[in-house]
Amino acid sequence: RRPRPALPKSQQIARKSGRRCCGSCIARYLLLPQRLVKALFQQGARACIDAILRFIHFGDVIDKAVILTHESGSDCTHAIYLSINGGLEEIIVKAGFASGYPGEGPGGLAYVLSLLEALEVPIDESVLDGRMFQKIENCTVTSWNLEKLIEKNRVRPHRYSDYIYGIRSLRMDEGRWQTRFPVSMPYSLIDDRLIDLAVQFRNNPKNSLNNAHTRLEDTIRKRIESEEHGSKLFSEAFLGKNSKLEWEGLSDGVAAGRAKLFSDVYSGFRNRRMHREFDETNDEQLYEFLLVNQLFRLEAQAKDRVLDEPETQNEASEQA
After folding, report:
1. In 3-state terms, what secondary structure has residue 62?
2. Alpha-carbon gap, residue 112 to 117, rounded angstroms
3. What is the spatial distance between Cα 285 and Cα 113, in angstroms, rounded to a whole number?
4. 7 pLDDT more than 50
5. By C-alpha distance, which of 249, 252, 225 is closest to 237?
6. CB-facing half-sphere around the CA of 153: CA atoms within 13 A
7. What is 186-224 written as a DSSP string?
8. What residues pair up with 84 in beta bridges, in sequence order?
9. Are residues 99 and 106 in contact, defined by beta-carbon separation less than 8 angstroms?
10. CA-to-CA distance for 299 and 212, rounded, in angstroms?
11. Which pTM does this prediction carry?
């Protein structure tokens, strides 16, 4: 038999400990004492920013961030350590950030630090020597060594604000930091009756919107057994004390406001879409789709109204 080729060192460590490690994947898991740390292999500041945005966008909570700095003259290279979801997961976004000169690397670092500040994430910094920094790059650093070095080489006083200073276009108070997040469908909020259109939305948003408006009318028309359409249909279903559907526990004013919302969305969005062709951004189309989704949710919350039957003349005379 031919001898098997030697495994990479990271896989040898994983095999000895009984853990799986895929050498070909983009993100490799490093087996460290007491906890498993993931090191993300990214190239360039843009990819490193995206790596961090994915965790935030998915709903993970970043508890702590530590800038891992390697100084080389006036220029510095940076990786970022993140503790996520109460320390259940630890991430190192490998070196793709920089400082000390104008460019993409320093701009990316300024953006990430500004974002973490806006999310009220505690930020710290530790300076590592070249040998330790290379261990991070090679995924051979242990949790114990990393924690010990972070504690020993903390930068005091804090200087991470110096990495942000001067990047005025990225300041959080200008409301531009959220524009880097992808425009994506929040599937967890979508009504079950719209999920197929939500899946198709990415490739054909206009068709999904048109079908969503039509499906809303068809759903209500079938439920109340009506032949009306548009505003007349919504008024028959929701508006007034004789409507066929009602929201229990709401005042007349709140119920009327919800009923008018159906008619207003129909006349303000659907009619415009049916009678004129115009250009829209992905953001605007997603806003409208979520608005129609909210109407589906309101319709699902409504109950069939039970109308009081009129008293017969005999019953009225007996009561008299």
Report:
1. strand
2. 9
3. 31
4. no
5. 225
6. 19
7. -GGGS-GGGHHHHHHTTT-HHHHHHHHHHHHHHHHHHHH
8. 62, 89
9. yes
10. 14
11. 0.72
